[in-house]
Amino acid sequence: MSGRTAYGRWGAGRLPAQGPVLVTGASSGLGRECALELEALGFQVLAGVRREEDGEKLLTESLHDRLRPVVVDVTDEASVRACAERVEREHGGLRGLVNNAGICVPGPLECLDADQFRRQLDVNVIGHLGVVRAHLPLLRRSRGRIVNVTSGLGKAAVPFLGAYSAAQFAKEALNDALRRELAPQGVRVCVVAPGAILTPIWGKVSEAGERALDGVPAAVAEPYRAAFRAFMAGNAQQAAASRTTPEDFARAVARALTDARPRTRYWVGADARRMGRLARLLPDPLLDRRFSGIAGPAAGPTGRRPR
Ligand SMILES: NC(=O)c1ccc[n+]([C@@H]2O[C@H](COP(=O)([O-])OP(=O)(O)OC[C@H]3O[C@@H](n4cnc5c(N)ncnc54)[C@H](OP(=O)(O)O)[C@@H]3O)[C@@H](O)[C@H]2O)c1
């Protein structure tokens, strides 16, 4: 089959959009859009949600009877195992795994306690790897694909999103290692890295940002307070003004799953692409200068802040 679509030409250079695909974090934002888009294209979509009611809501939005919600919390090994067992029972294999579920824990690193930092890594890194491990036998059987959702912040860390950046850097490293480990087994692995896209994550980040400085003594919070507040406000504005849409993201995931020769990386949005380029080309001092407005000007050699 071949023909023109929003993605270019199906046929030569494209694989058919068929077979089961699991999308984690499909209750909202990018995962939701992606699940509905992949269903529309022809995939059998297993839409990962943490609550039954989110699955029911998604079903009311599904138009093609090819989407089934599956309850999976990526930090809960039993639920991940149950998900893999269900995929095995109902489909026998897996054509694609989209590791999209994620959270963002904002705050100056000095103000985050170990539990907050652990939660960030539990969801975005350790949970993600657990999902990969549980589904690899099924992906191997189908010569399937893994799509890891990272971010522009997986290549350059900005102040006040250090925990999130650390998780994205780690996810990038896992992606590279998995890509090289699994290539001989016929499982392709690639990254989809979006820039700012307006989704519910930004509301959650703003709320968490409000509380980020509350848990530490005022003397610890004070040096950061004004700059952090300005950063959070700027971030929210950037997301609201972003011209990149969840549909752009869903299209990139679809390409990663159907390109006959998938790229190793699909950037989504000019800001993400720019971040990747800056991180690759600029030496550290120039990158520092690029981000210097965020946390405030650097102290001079005497340790005093410039006036
Ligand atoms: N939006 C952006 O600007 C942007 C930019 C770069 C990268 N990203 C990445 O894109 C991905 C999706 O973000 P989004 O903007 O769509 O955020 P979102 O609207 O907040 O969606 C996050 C999804 O992850 C799920 N999730 C959270 N913790 C989970 C857990 N323990 N187990 C399973 N699912 C869990 C959430 O489920 P619940 O509803 O149950 O909490 C939700 O479905 C994230 O990995 C994020 O880092 C987003």
From TrEMBL:
Keyword Isomerase: no
Pfam families per the UniProt record, alphabetical: adh_short
CDD domains assigned: 17beta-HSD-like_SDR_c (cd05374)
Keyword match rRNA processing: no
UniProt KW keywords: Oxidoreductase
GO terms assigned for molecular function: oxidoreductase activity
Enzyme Commission numbers on file: 1.1.-.-
Enzyme kind, highest EC tier: oxidoreductase
UniProt cross-references to Gene3D superfamilies, sorted A to Z: NAD(P)-binding Rossmann-like Domain
Family: Belongs to the short-chain dehydrogenases/reductases (SDR) family.
Record's protein name: SDR family oxidoreductase
Source organism per UniProt: Streptomyces bikiniensis
